[in-house]
Write a structure and sequence with these properties.
about 290 residues; disordered C terminus; 3-stranded mixed beta sheet; mainly alpha; 12 helices; 3 strands
Amino acid sequence: MEVDQRVQRFRFAEDAAQIRMRESKALYDRTRQHLIDLLEPLRDGLGAMGFLGEFDQFLALTPEIEEVAHLLVHCREEARRLKDKRDRLAEKYKGKSDAERRLELQDNFKRKRMFVEMGARRSRLHPSALYADSFTPPITFSEISRHLATFSSLDPGLFSSRRFRVHGYPRIGIMPGRGNGVYDWEDHALLFPLFPASTPERSVAQALGLLRWDADDDRDLKDTYGALKDNRGKSIVGLQEDFCKEYLVWLTKEAKGYRVLPKESYNWFHWKIAGGSELGADVGKK
C-alpha cells in the first residue's frame, strides 16, 4: 500500500530500502495471483455443491483486507500531514500578537467567502440566502459523503493524481450561502454552500469537476480534452467551463444510461474518466 500510494516514507527512503519495499510489493502481488489461480478451478465443483456464495465471499476477503490496509495507510499519512501543518503554523505565528492572529483569521474567512461566491456566480445566484425567493433543503455531510462514494466509483482516477499523493484527500466544508460546490485550490478543500443551487448531487458533481480540472497538474486531461474537434481554439477558461458541464452530465446522466453527450465527448470521457481504452482510441483525430 505504501508503494502504491507513494507515501512519504517510500518517496524519501534510501535506494536500498525502496528496492526492498518494491520487491515486497511484487512478492505480495504474485502470491495474491497464485492464490486466485489455485482457488478458481474449485468454482464449478463448489457451485454444484451449493457453496458458490461462500466461495465468492471467501475470495472477497482479500480486497476487503486491502481496503482496510489502504485506509490505515491513509490515516497515518493524514496524521503526519496534520502534525507537519501544526508545526508550520506554530513556527509562523510564534511571537505574533493576538491582533495579528485575528487579522490572519479574517483573511482566511475572506478567502473562503470568495470561493463560495464563485460557486454562486457559476450557478447564477446571489450568494446570500436572504435574497432567495425559495429555498432548497440544506446540504448535509452525509449527502456529500454518499455522492462522493458514488462518483468516485464512476471516476476511478479521481483521487490518484500527484496532488493527492502529496496533499492527501481534500478537506470538506459546508459554508453559509447558495450555489454549487467549488474546489478551493489554495487550501485543497471542497467547499459546499449550505443551500445547493438545485440538488446535492449536482453540487457535489460540480465541485468534483473543478477538482478534476485543477488537479490535472501534468495537463493530461486539459491537453486531450482541448484536442477534441469542438474544443479547438477555446480559451482555458472556456475549456474548464465546458469540461465541468460535461463532467456533471457524465456523472449524473451518462453513468445512469442516458445518452446525452456528443459522440466525441462521450468517447473521451469513456477513455479518460471511466478508464476505458477502445472507444477513446481515435479521440482528437479527424
